[in-house]
């Protein structure tokens, strides 16, 4: 009894930890939920909220970049009173008119940080490239137009964020509004209260520092600038933006390694997506609708889905078994699961994109359940030693997976991933069947195919930028 | 208990401080519970996030009858059960990743961090029959008494006690050579 209690006690003592970054993001989101309980649609899913959080993250980078431009431009305003005003005027003019690069580090509460190269192309354009979960993302902001172009380079898709479209732009904390803040607003930070921090060395370079504290509607800014004494060029700028809303967390950025003589290519700052990129929010669903094409197999798949949705599960799976998978199948229109490519989906206007997304998610749920049902019927037949029947059920699930995977470029990424999942699931059971029936050749084929799918899945994940867990 | 009642009253008045306090007070326990029930860190994060979100949305009509922790634990258990019932876990890798891709978005950084010992336990728990796993996790990590778990599982308290006993024996055997 004592040993049992000891075991229970040990189990109880095991604890988990949470990351400060995760806590902050989740709590920020929950606080937003609290504030806008009446406004938030009840249908917003957890996944949707998590996507929203990510968008916030990107916008946070964009906000950082905009503040950076302002501070880069305003640096001499803080120090001009203590040194030769002519020299500072020259440096100010240089920063105002030349393009430059620097490393932008975003600090988080849990002492983690992310550093990305940031480039400023005058007038008023800034680009930063960052490696994030779905691959390499570039953000190009044009403060004159009040727009940010985000390029998802891995997928060759792009989206433009405008002030009015920014999620939560009216939220307290207002980091989104910073993205659109005209440079001039921050330019005029100097209010006569700046503090001289004296001189010191940074990496062997003699610098003098200045600090300015300023407020706007959303933040209290604490900005520290260290400039090279000899050249007056910026060496290090640190900004801490503390929201007036105590529920929001402060943000902190550091800018270092300035190159004020960088030769930049203007095309890298274009607000037009590069050739081959698909821009979101361009077309309506009616513009991509295709004329229906007669295809018996496609009609049967629609009927399988129809039967399943009506609760006729066994009939649905029986029909699945009867499909002639060798006959060509052509899908047009609904279900978009089979007929819409990722690029077509990205190009859709927001409302249509949501409509298609909803349909695709519902279809993928139904199809994986159908596949699972077919496999479970196969397992039941196997248990009853009706191996022919078992093989038919398992093969029908496998063929369904192959159908979903028939052309990765013609369907959405999620569809392809579901197809891979269905194929692997079916192949695994087929190996069990062939192992039981000692059909060595078929077993070898199924095992080889399973391994091929595993390798293919790993390559595909890498290709589309999914991080391994 | 009194503090929870006060916090809920404050939350109903829109107090963000009350929400922060409730979150800080219970998030670790709820995440541990969800992670142990699901053996899926990402799923656990989603479940707890969703439970808090739904709780906030329904806070205005919420009436605390027992303990707040008990209520939240029950919500997590129910949501985790639905999560498992859909066999989401089996497909989780592909479908989570698919969600990521569809959104063209990076998931938030990892929120929940499990120790090796805890991961060993959740891996072993995942090998138990769902009913036994649920009883053990809800009793040990949710702090629910057997009677309450019996209500949730719609079985007798004796059955719950048996499930706990058998489950614990099997768990100990599974964890025999592992670090705990």
pLDDT below 50 for ≥5 consecutive residues: which ranges of chain B? 86-109
Distance from first to last alpha carbon of chain B:
33 Å
Question: Sheet with the most strands of chain B?
Answer: none
Which residue ranges of chain A are poorly predicted, with pLDDT under 50 across at least 5 consecutive positions? 38-63, 65-86, 164-191
Number of strands of chain A: 13
How would you sum up this structure, described in words?
The complex is a heterodimer of chains A (469) and B (180). Chain A is of the alpha+beta class. Helices cover 48% and strands 21% of the residues of chain A. In chain A, α3 packs antiparallel against α4. By secondary structure, chain B is an all-alpha fold. In chain B, 73% of the residues lie in helices and 2% in strands. Chain B has helices at residues 2-12, 16-38, 41-57, 68-85, 88-102, 116-125, 130-140, 146-153, 157-174; one strand at residues 112-114. The radius of gyration of chain B is 17 Å and the shape is globular. The model of chain B is unreliable at 86-109 (pLDDT under 50). At the A-B interface, α1, β1, α2, α3 and α12 of A face α2, α3, α5, β1 and α6 of B.
Which tags fit this structure?
heterodimer, A: 469 residues, alpha+beta, twelve-stranded mixed beta sheet, 15 helices, elongated, B: 180 residues, mainly alpha, 9 helices
């Amino acid at each position: 009894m004592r040993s049992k209690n000891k075991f229970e006690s040990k189990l109880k003592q095991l604890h988990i930890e949470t990351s400060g970054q995760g806590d902050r993001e989740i709590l920020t989101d929950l606080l937003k939920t609290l504030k806008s309980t009446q406004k938030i649609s009840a249908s917003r899913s957890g996944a949707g909220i998590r996507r929203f959080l990510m968008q916030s993250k990107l916008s946070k980078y964009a906000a950082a970049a905009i503040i950076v431009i302002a501070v880069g431009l305003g640096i001499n305003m803080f120090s001009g009173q203590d040194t030769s005003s002519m020299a500072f005027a020259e440096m100010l003019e240089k920063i105002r008119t030349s393009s430059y690069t620097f490393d932008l580090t975003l600090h988080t509460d849990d002492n983690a940080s992310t550093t990305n190269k940031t480039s400023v192309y005058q007038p008023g354009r800034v680009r930063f490239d960052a490696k994030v979960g779905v691959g390499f993302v570039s953000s190009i902001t044009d403060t004159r137009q009040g727009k940010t172009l985000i390029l998802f380079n891995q997928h060759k898709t792009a989206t433009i964020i405008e002030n009015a479209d920014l999620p939560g732009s009216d939220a307290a904390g207002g980091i989104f509004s910073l993205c659109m803040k005209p440079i001039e607003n921050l330019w005029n930070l100097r209010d006569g209260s700046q503090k001289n921090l004296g001189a010191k060395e940074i990496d062997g370079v003699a610098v003098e520092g200045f600090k300015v504290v300023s407020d706007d509607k959303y933040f209290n800014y604490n900005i520290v600038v260290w400039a090279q004494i000899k050249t007056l060029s910026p060496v290090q700028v640190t900004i801490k933006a503390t929201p007036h809303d105590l529920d929001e967390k402060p943000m902190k950025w550091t800018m270092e390694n300035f190159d004020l003589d960088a030769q930049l290519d203007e095309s890298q700052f274009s607000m037009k997506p590069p050739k081959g990129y698909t821009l979101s929010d361009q077309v309506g669903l009616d513009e991509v609708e295709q004329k229906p094409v007669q295809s018996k197999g496609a009609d049967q798949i629609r009927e399988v889905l129809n039967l399943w949705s009506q609760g006729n599960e066994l009939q649905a799976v029986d029909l699945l078994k009867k499909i002639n998978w060798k006959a060509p199948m052509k899908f047009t229109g609904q279900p978009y699961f089979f007929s819409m490519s990722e690029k077509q989906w990205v190009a859709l206007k927001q409302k249509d994109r949501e409509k298609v997304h909803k349909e695709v998610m519902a279809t993928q749920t139904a199809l994986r359940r159908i596949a699972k049902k077919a496999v479970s019927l196969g397992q039941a037949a196997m248990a009853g030693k009706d191996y022919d029947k078992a093989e038919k059920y398992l093969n029908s699930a496998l063929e369904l997976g192959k159908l979903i995977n028939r052309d990765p470029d013609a369907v959405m990424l999620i569809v392809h991933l579901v197809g891979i999942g269905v194929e692997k699931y079916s192949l695994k059971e087929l190996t069990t069947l062939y192992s039981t029936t000692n059909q060595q050749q078929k077993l070898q084929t199924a095992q080889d195919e399973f391994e091929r799918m595993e390798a293919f899945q790993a390559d595909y994940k890498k290709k589309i930028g999914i991080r391994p867990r | 208990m009194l503090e929870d009642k006060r916090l809920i009253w404050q939350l109903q008045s829109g107090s963000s401080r009350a929400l922060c306090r409730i979150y800080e007070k219970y998030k670790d326990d709820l995440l541990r519970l969800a992670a142990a029930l699901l053996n899926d860190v990402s799923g656990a994060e989603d479940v707890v996030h969703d439970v808090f979100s739904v709780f906030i949305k329904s806070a205005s009509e919420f009436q605390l009858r027992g303990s707040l922790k008990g209520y939240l634990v029950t919500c997590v258990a129910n949501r985790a059960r639905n999560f498992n019932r859909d066999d989401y876990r089996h497909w989780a890798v592909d479908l989570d990743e698919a969600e990521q891709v569809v959104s063209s978005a990076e998931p938030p950084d990892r929120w929940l961090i499990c120790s090796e010992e805890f991961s060993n336990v959740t891996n072993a728990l995942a090998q138990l029959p769902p009913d036994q796993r649920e009883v053990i996790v809800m009793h040990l990590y949710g702090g629910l008494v057997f009677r309450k778990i019996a209500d949730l599982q719609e079985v007798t308290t004796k059955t719950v006690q048996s499930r706990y006993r058998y489950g614990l024996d099997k768990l100990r055997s599974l964890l025999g050579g592992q670090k705990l």
